[in-house]
Hints:
67% of the residues lie in helices and 0% in strands. By secondary structure, the chain is an all-alpha fold. It has one domain (4-333). It is globular and about 60 Å long.
Amino acid sequence: MFSRAELRGSPIDVPSGMAQRQLLLLGAVCAVVVALGLGLSGVLRAVADLYPEALPAHPMFVRAHVLLLYVATPVALVGAVGMLLMPGFLLSLVAGGDRRWGILAATTVGWALLIRGAAHTVLRLLGAGPVAFDTFATTDICLDIGLMGVLAFRARRGHAIVVPVERSDHRRLAWMATIIAILSVVLLPRLFWQDLSGDGIEMLEAGRSTLAYLVPRFPGPESGLVGLGAGSISSAYPIGWFVSLIGPVEAAARLPLAMALPVLFAIISDLCEFRLPRRLSALGEVAIVLAIVTFTVTLGLNSSYTAYSARGARALRFDTSPAHYAGRFHSARGD
C-alpha cells in the first residue's frame, strides 16, 4: 500500500512483504473498529434508555453519569460509525483507483449502502427474518473478512492498494472522529432523549421497515412507496442499521447524522483544495470543523420548522446527506 503521490502514473510492482504488513495492519484496525462498534453498541442503547420519562434538571450536563455520557458514548459512537462504514471502505479499496479523501468518503458510504443492502437481501431470499442484532453483526463480520480476503488476493497478484497513509491524512481522519465526538457530547440530550416529531417517527418507521423489506415503507393507511424521495431513501437505510444495533428507539433516527458529518468534512476539504498546489493546513481544517459543528448545533437546537431549518426531533435531514454534497463536489470538479 502506498501514498497517492507514489501511485500516480503507470502501474508499479508491489513488494509482497510490504503489502502483507500493510494488510495485517489494515486487518488489525478493521478488527478493532468492528469490536468497538459491536461491543459498545450496548452503551448507546443504555444512554437512550437512561431517562424514559422526565429528564434531569440540567440535561446538557448530567454529573451523575459523566463517564457513561461523556467518555463511553463518544467512543461507542465513533466505533459504531467506523464499523458501519468499514465494508464500504474495504470495497472502495477493492475497486482501486487514486481517490482523494472526498471521493473516498463518498464512495465508502455508497458502497456500504450497496453491499450491506445486497447481503441483507440475500438473507431475506434465503428465508431469514428481520435483520436483528445477531444477524446484522454476523453479516458485517463476514463481509469484512471476505473483503479483506479479496484485498489479500489482489495484493498477492501485484495490484496496488491505495490507502490514505500520509501524515495529513492521519490528521484528517482524527478530525472526522473528533466531529463525531463533539456531536455526541454537545447534542446528547437532543440525539438520545428528545421525543420524535411526526417526521421523525415516519423516518424511524421507514428505517425500521428496511430490516424486513428491500425498499423502505412508510407507516399509515397509504403505506408503501408513497412520498419517497432521494433524501428519504438514503436516510432510511442508515436508520435501519442503527435500529439493528440499538433497537427502535428515538436515537436510531438521529445517529446517522454522526455518519454523515465526517463525510461532509472530507468532501468540503477536497473542495477547498480543488486546483490548489498544496493541501489544507491544520488551521484550515480547524475552520472547516468549526463551521460544521456550528451548522449542526444551530440546526439541532433550532425550534423552528421551515424549509431552511430543522428541529432536533426530526431525523437526518437531506441537507446533511453525503450524496447531496458529493453531487456538489463532482459538479465543482467538472466530472
